[in-house]
Amino acid sequence: MSPHPESSDSKSGKKDFSTAILERKKSPNRLIVDEAINDDNSVVSMHPQTMEKLQLFRGDTILVKGKKRKDTVCIALADETCEEPRVRMNKVVRSNLRVRLGDVVSVHTCPDVKYGKRVHILPIDDTVEGVTGNLFDAYLKPYFLEAYRPVRKGDLFLVRGGMRSVEFKVIETDPAEYCVVAPDTEIFCEGEPVKREDEERLDEVGYDDVGGVRKQMAQIRELVELPLRHPQLFKSIGVKPPKGILLYGPPGSGKTLIARAVANETGAFFFCINGPEIMSKLAGESESNLRKAFEEAEKNAPSIIFIDEIDSIAPKREKTHGEVERRIVSQLLTLMDGLKSRAHVIVMGATNRPNSIDPALRRFGRFDREIDIGVPDEVGRLEVLRIHTKNMKLSDDVDLERIAKDTHGYVGADLAALCTEAALQCIREKMDVIDLEDETIDAEVLNSMAVSNEHFHTALGISNPSALRETVVEVPNVSWDDIGGLENVKRELQETVQYPVEHPEKFEKFGMSPSKGVLFYGPPGCGKTLLAKAIANECQANFISVKGPELLTMWFGESEANVREIFDKARQSAPCVLFFDELDSIATQRGSSVGDAGGAADRVLNQLLTEMDGMSAKKTVFIIGATNRPDIIDSALLRPGRLDQLIYIPLPDEESRYQIFKACMRKSPVSKDVDLRALAKYTQGFSGADITEICQRACKYAIRENIEKDIERERKRNENPEAMDEDMEEDVAEIKAAHFEESMKFARRSVSDADIRKYQSFAQTLQQSRGFGSEFRFPESGGRATGSDPFATSAGGADEDDLYTSDKKSGLVTVLGALWGMILAPMVMSREFSERMRTARSPSRTTHVKLQLQRRRISTVSSALAETAASMAVAVTVVGAAATLLVKRSKTSESTQIQFKACEDCGGSGICSECKGEGFVLRKRSDESAEKARVQAKNMATRFTAGLPKKWSYCTKCSSGRSCSTCGGTGKLSY
């Protein structure tokens, strides 16, 4: 019983401990920065109750801590109008603390501040240009006189005097880093003014200047700040702190910027090594440079060593031909994991090729953690845009959220380039009022300049993601209006590509990931490529056009690497549309590439299949394929999960042809006497490309006529210069009916009827393979489904000699799959197809003899079936006729399942007393075997009847096919 109270006490103790930590986190000294009313560089204002909580009095000197480990000293004043918990400070104090309005600072008492003995102060160079006289007498003496102002080493402060303001910097203070300037403090102001550039260096970057990487920054701060600032945490637990972090990601994602921000925020010494800089032509000099860098960092600990482009100095040793690179890798390994422990030194590496680095560097103890600095999402892009536009002069109509939504695949550097391009667009608009020869630009012009939303949209059309600059194509200006007809196809495309990009929350709500692949197939010139162009333009996604033959190279393995690289770039720039035009050139059926060197086409297809399967569900990458040879594409590519949406683009019907004519002529001046409806009616069988060619030819004739009239008019004007212009009325330039009539003389169809039948046959076969069609219905509650399963397969493989089974429950006899090869194939189908079937099945000799015997037994029925082979009812009649004959042979007990077996005495080839001249004998069979045979027969019959064209209806009066008055002796009725 005793352990239970103890455990509960320990739990309550832990709870109290954690509660105490939370209470400390909520300490009242953390205040929100607000704008100051009193513009004094040495004063901050707080509410009296806030000062009471902090145990401060009016006039106390306090220490204020901001970001990037910056702090300053100020005088605390009470302000009734200041809200809690806020602190008011002016712009100068905020700049010294590296904070903005709304940020959080911490306020601390500063009891040990002393009066300063000596203070060295220098002005900033750009603020003293043109200032004459003594700076000390004009600015510093009035500023510090009887004011007892606290100052800190490194702070900037602004002094207003005379006609302008001058900014100063505290260079040195004695005796401490911060002190109070008293009347007896010596102020020195000798020396050259401080350059502004030195104050605004890149190393002033902080966490606020890095956007779009919140999760990654949290991991980096955990791995870097804790070992540098609180190493005792790891000592108390008894583990070694992390020693290295590898940052990898696409170029421009902010890897180097993150390293600098971490160094500034932690206050650590930052030592940057650019990979190629340590290389030397002298033997051993490169390793010596690397050792010196680590020694320098250890002297200035806590420090961060940042190795940029680490893949250039630490490649895989087995793939490196140079001896210098191998020695450098070995030296780096020993430095990062040597016998001498590195105290308070962390190594950070950055690369965009992590798989090129030697694997020995990527183990624990060297680079402990690898962090992916990937392409930012929409929220991250908005953060980056706000950072880059914080100093830009923006107009009120700029919608940064919309810009962030439209910049899929952009990294931080791309967004910075976008902002720069938008600013350049603004400057270009004002170039006509700017005189480049003048030394100064008019202030009114400068004040009127502001970057608008239109400038950003123009910049969006010019810039593109850097990851896609090798493969990106200029998105064509094709919209849905340019495509006539194909309404169902347009809707299908919008649902497949546009919906996941524009409405991702709907897919999350319904718990289903969108389909990722579409295949367009159909006759040439029906708009397959045009549809892909339109979807690339309409949906706000990146677009990569892949031309199949360009992927194939002469080098072994290079073709697959090209496919892999394209998919990697598409995933980086998601959402992205990959368009494979002429897909049949790289996705033919495997094994069909006879004479292919090394099977390159098969390897490319295999790589394509694995890339489609390997795509992460979170990455929105869509694949659109277009082909006019769907019959040769590998079937593995067409399964659901890859190219699951198979869309047939047929020849346009009359209404679609009319829409195509309208789309082609919507930008052209067309005469009223042109009847586009009539043109659509008379162009039966024409593809969209054929119709476009008719319009182009008519337009060419109109242009020719217009040019000839211009030449004639110019000739008359030269002959009779005194003629008035009114006498030469200029005709309205438009395309007339005569031009179309002339164009129709040369119109031709590019797709033959035979080609159309091929595509229709493929589409029909595809539709039949879908099985259910429109017949599937859920069963009513409590009932059974009435429809049969069109996808049912045999329950098991039956003996090849099993021909007939009798269901003991129903008493029906069904025909096995062997009946198809025995009767239907030779009699119903054509001779060529029958030959292929026989070659494919190759029945045994015993079965073949039985097939011949059964063919003789139902010869009466077979002669009538020869003319009606295409009817679906043929199969039913054959089954019925065969069943009628075979039932007579199976006069056995209903409880016994029977099977015909080849006679063992004569082998099924002769007449003997055992089989009585029939060639086979009866034997019993199990119920399980009978059920398997019955299911197999049912499936075979279903497949056969589904494959027959429904062109004729079998005559019901003469069911055997004999002549009658109803069918007129043909044995079939049309419907």
From TrEMBL:
This one is known as Cell division cycle protein 48 isogeny
Q: Name one GO cellular component term.
A: VCP-NPL4-UFD1 AAA ATPase complex
Q: Which Gene3D superfamilies match?
A: 1.10.8.60, 2.40.40.20, 3.10.330.10, 6.10.20.150, P-loop containing nucleotide triphosphate hydrolases
Tell me where in this chain the AAA+ ATPase domain is found: 241-377, 514-653
Q: Name one GO biological process term.
A: cell division
Organism lineage string = Eukaryota, Viridiplantae, Streptophyta, Embryophyta, Tracheophyta
Which SMART domains does the entry mention? AAA, CDC48_2, CDC48_N
Extract the SUPFAM superfamilies matched here.
ADC-like, Cdc48 domain 2-like, P-loop containing nucleoside triphosphate hydrolases
